[in-house]
Design goal:
This is PLD-like domain-containing protein. This protein is an alpha+beta fold. Helix content is 33%, strand content 21%. It is built from 27 helices and 34 strands. Helix 1 packs parallel to helix 2, helix 12 crosses helix 13 and helix 16 runs antiparallel to helix 17. The N and C termini lie far apart (105 Å).
């Protein structure tokens, strides 16, 4: 089907939105944009992110001299989408957008450049063709040939030429539909566009923003068609033409002039012929009514133009008020200026990131020594020279290779000195074509039925109800799929190709986005997707002095400022109080679906991370209030995140920082009012999550952690500030190096100074009764091996020795060993820490000689040396020099 639209269709952005809204949810494989002027910052904001989220490789090609963006504003060129520049003696002037899916192909050929004006403000004309890859109009095949032929006539980077060949191959239909022979592609690669216009017409209608100063193209069109009447649509202030020459050219036939108001630029290009039978034939595309556009080929120095000829039901000439020739003669005379007359000395067409080098494609208009400079972001003062080359004047492109560490996305430019004047090329961006390729083909991978955004989930309980049902189904299907493919998993090896490693992160995000949609992926992986709404803001630069605005108030110290880190992070969404019970029910069901189980496989890691991120969001929203039941569920979430270490190892390295950040924040929240290896219920829950997960928390990175943090003013909100999380991460690092580190930290926080003596752990403190601290040591330091520990306040000491099933206690103030059997869930802390005196036992033994029942519990500790220092004092020995019960 072919349509030419002027009002219902605004720009290729409309096509993107229509593709995205298709109920069948077909992925987009290619999104190709050609234009004369390009604004990459505009495209990134309105087109690139949308197309990439639908799976497409995005490629932009424009005239090398016509970029209107500042490189500092371009964030994703080269590593999210491909950008290249083209150059010819004339202007590279086509306006084209191509969307290629698995089955369908949509194209828009028209007049609008990929800029805010061309795709958003000007009056433009577009011809939209919708076809299929298995069957399409002949014009679809003609466009495929044009794309594949274009690099033979236009200088451009090699990888862009390869992309045009790929898109052309995908565009070419397997079967030609000849039902619309009137629809033809017009271009000037080999013959002028004028040769494709009708040779006879009753009426010719012309509208364009640029008309030859000599009006040669107007004369050529009229001489070819010999119409009875010609009508012009002009803007008195905005159309570029010379009134006298236009009136002279139009004077050979009846001429009518229509004045279009100057409120918006009439940028559409229209050549319209009405035949003797009243049928209307239009040419819509990029060609102005100028000699370079209509009368010359590319080889002859003309522009590179593209247009579509088709029959339509009505005239497309703008409906505007008629004005007389005398009025037009009074309008100001202007000359077309779509291209500067002087060619730039250096044209940089593109740069490609290879394994260890960067391949630069350029055209030089001078004989000079050229320096290749690179910058991380194009900011002033950040450019570094990376290579020097001898350039000679030529129209053909040359390729240089430079050694450079800059990654894909870095800005690059050429600099030379010409007669004491420094000349610079328009910057380009280092491109990694493989990273920009179409997203992975997902086949039958499960996915959410709808696209959900966090705002509507948290704010609308009805939407959350649908999402919860949808998510539970997805979690189940994901687990089943992973179970069925588990036996096919190949462990990661050392001989992995460099390109495969480089691209694993992109594929990982592609799969996650396919399953959950970009909104939820952004929640679990903030800032990872190519989206203009990233949580991590782009840096800005400025020239001049920058004052420190973080001034201390009266009586305030630097440490006070550091304590304000809870203000970092994104504001958590609010859940209405009346809906909180429902939200608690939903999150509990999600946790049950991802909790580790010996008989059920886990859903994929990105899904589990998303559940964790949603849990933290709801904790920050305060939906539990004073209810502590969230602790058990959050511990289960943490355990599910780290359960499958093989899956973590197989995940791309970039994902580890996000996983580590989520685990670190979860552990920090669980650690509020709780201690690792403590004896209270909250301590036990924290320990259950800490032991398998603390090493993963050390994988976090500061920039990712800041993006994951939340803040909230809700009553009952549970969240962790940056300092809290960083302390948790530091403790995790210590615990990874020293298994007892977290216990030592917890004991230190409780006022116990821990050291090791004679194979025993000794804690010094200011407590009055050392019984409970000793029980705490015997509980928290126990790792399955026999343990000896002492708690002392200097005047009184309690020694405990223990194994899995028994514990013995010696109080220096009492002087006898008391031995107790222990059965789970009993611990020394539950036996001795209740504050009800010394528990009764039938097994009471002398202190010395150390009874065999006690020695068996002490393990490798030198119990005699320990008792010599911390045992009972001032008791007389018995006659046989041994301590006895009577002596005690």
């Amino acid at each position: 089907m072919t349509m030419i639209e002027h009002t219902a269709f605004a720009s290729p952005l409309t096509l993107l939105s229509q593709w995205q809204d298709r109920p069948e949810g077909d992925p987009l494989r290619e999104f190709l944009v050609l234009g004369y002027t390009a604004d990459l910052a505009f495209l990134e904001r309105f087109a690139v992110s949308k197309a990439r989220q639908m799976g497409a490789r995005v490629t932009v090609l424009s005239d090398a001299d016509q970029q209107i963006h500042d490189p500092i504003d371009v964030r994703f060129a080269g590593h999210v989408y491909q950008y290249g520049a083209a150059t010819i003696p004339g202007a590279f002037h086509p306006k084209l957008a191509v969307l290629v899916g698995e089955e369908d192909v949509w194209t828009a050929i028209g007049s609008g450049n990929p800029t805010m004006s061309g795709w958003g403000h000007n009056h433009e004309l577009w011809c939209v063709l919708r076809g299929r890859r298995d069957r399409g109009l002949r014009v679809q095949s003609e466009l495929a040939s044009w794309l594949q032929d274009l690099p033979r006539h236009v200088a451009m980077p090699g990888w862009i030429a390869e992309t045009l060949a790929d898109v052309g191959a995908a565009l070419r239909p397997a079967e030609i539909d000849d039902s619309r022979p009137d629809v033809r592609l017009l271009h000037n690669l080999r013959v002028p566009i004028i040769d494709g216009l009708p040779v006879e017409a009753a009426e010719v209608n012309l509208a364009a923003p640029f008309i030859d100063p000599s009006a040669a193209a107007v004369r050529a069109v009229l001489e070819r068609a010999r119409p009875d009447r010609v009508r012009f649509a002009l803007q008195s202030q905005l159309t570029s033409f010379v009134p006298s020459t236009l009136l002279a050219a139009a004077g050979r036939t009846t001429a009518e002039f229509h004045e279009v108001d100057d409120e918006r630029t009439m940028h559409g290009k229209l050549i319209e012929h009405v035949d003797r039978d009243g049928r209307v034939h239009v040419v819509v595309g990029s060609a102005n009514v100028t000699s370079p556009a209509l009368l010359r080929t590319v080889r002859e120095g003309g522009n590179c133009e593209l247009a579509v000829a088709a029959s339509v039901k009505r005239s497309l000439l703008p409906d505007a008020r008629p004005v007389s020739a005398d009025t037009v003669a009074q309008w100001p005379s202007t000359a077309p200026s779509e291209r500067e007359q002087s060619s730039p000395a250096l044209r940089l067409l593109g740069a490609r990131r290879l394994d260890r080098t960067i391949e630069v494609t350029a055209v030089s208009g001078i004989d000079a020594t050229v320096t290749v400079e690179l910058s991380p972001d194009g900011a002033p003062g950040s450019w570094q020279a990376r290579g020097v080359f001898a350039a000679t004047r030529a129209s053909a492109a040359v390729t240089w290779t430079v050694d450079s560490p800059e990654p894909a996305g870095a800005a690059i430019r050429l600099v030379a000195t010409l007669e004491e004047t420094v000349v610079e090329s328009v910057p380009a961006f280092v491109t990694d074509p493989h990273r920009c390729r179409p997203r992975t083909d997902f086949g039958k991978e499960p996915r959410l039925r709808g696209a959900y955004e966090l705002d509507e989930l948290i704010g609308d309980s009805e939407v959350m109800a649908r999402f919860s049902k949808d998510l539970l189904t997805l979690l189940k299907l994901s687990a089943e799929q992973r179970a069925s493919t588990a036996t096919l998993r190949v462990p990661a090896g050392g001989a992995v190709e460099v390109q495969a490693r480089k691209d694993a992160w992109t594929e990982f995000l592609d799969h996650a986005t396919h399953s959950m949609g970009a909104g939820l992926v952004e929640l679990a992986f903030p800032g990872a997707l190519p989206s203009p709404v990233n949580t991590v803001e782009a840096s800005e630069w400025a020239v001049g002095a920058v004052d420190d605005e973080t001034e201390l108030a009266e009586g305030e110290t630097e440490s006070d400022i550091e304590l304000l880190d809870v203000e970092l992070g994104r504001e958590a969404r609010r859940v209405p109080p009346e809906a909180r019970a429902r939200y608690r029910t939903w999150i509990h069901r999600w946790v049950m679906s991802i909790s580790p189980s010996p008989s059920v496989a886990l859903p994929s890691l990105p899904l589990r991370m998303t559940v964790a991120a949603l849990f933290l969001e709801l904790l920050a929203a305060g939906i539990w209030g004073a209810d502590e039941s969230w602790r058990e569920d959050l511990a289960d979430v943490v355990r599910s995140l780290v359960e499958d270490r093989a899956e973590i190892d197989d995940s791309p390295e970039q994902s580890h920082a996000y996983l580590g950040a989520l685990v670190a924040v979860c552990l920090a929240v669980l650690g509020q009012d709780a201690r690792v290896h403590g004896g209270r219920p909250a301590d036990v829950v924290l320990t259950r999550a800490w032991e398998p997960a603390h090493d993963v928390a050390t994988l976090t990175e500061d920039v990712v952690l800041e993006a994951v943090l939340l803040r909230s003013s809700e009553i009952g909100a549970r969240l962790a500030g940056q300092a809290e999380v960083l302390a948790t991460v530091e403790l995790a690092r210590q615990a990874t190096a020293d298994p007892k580190a977290e216990i030592k930290a917890g004991l230190a926080a409780a006022g116990l100074d821990l050291e090791e003596q004679h194979g025993a752990w000794v804690a010094h403190g200011t407590f009055k009764n050392p019984m409970r601290p000793a029980a705490q040591l015997a509980t928290e330091l126990y790792d399955g091996a026999p343990l000896t520990c002492v708690a002392t306040n200097g005047a009184r000491s309690v020694t405990m020795v223990r194994t899995e099933g028994a514990v013995a206690m010696l109080d220096s103030a009492i002087g006898k060993w008391r031995v107790y059997a222990m059965r789970r869930p009993s611990t020394p802390l539950t036996i001795f820490g209740q504050g009800e005196g010394v528990p009764a036992t039938r097994q009471v033994l002398a202190a010395r000689p150390i009874p065999p029942a006690v020695a068996a519990l002490a393990g490798q500790a030198d119990l005699d040396a320990v008792l010599a220092k911390y045992g009972p004092k001032g008791r007389p020995p018995a006659k046989d020099a041994a301590w006895t019960d009577w002596d005690w």
